[in-house]
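Schema walk-through. Below, the input block comes first and the output block second. Nothing else is stored per chain. Lengths vary across the set, and this one has 88 residues.
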Amino acid sequence: MREHSTLKTHAALLDQMGRALGLDLQDEAISGRLQFDEISEAVLRCTRCGYPERCRKCVSTMRHAALAQAPDYCRNGDLLAYLKEQRV
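--- output ---
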């Protein structure tokens, strides 16, 4: 059960980080710009991050599209930057 809780927590953090960058990851998946297996891998990468509390604080203080880029410690920073770049 702990593993399920961890995955849910990090899936939420990933979604919140995307929103802070002006991305809707569900829309990205529906449009085909983001494959569902990429979302799974991104959540797993997020679970290996050593800064979940730092991330939670970062995204909780941001409004939609308030971040120009993901923090340096974000293990999904490259993926999120790529998705953001594709939207332009």
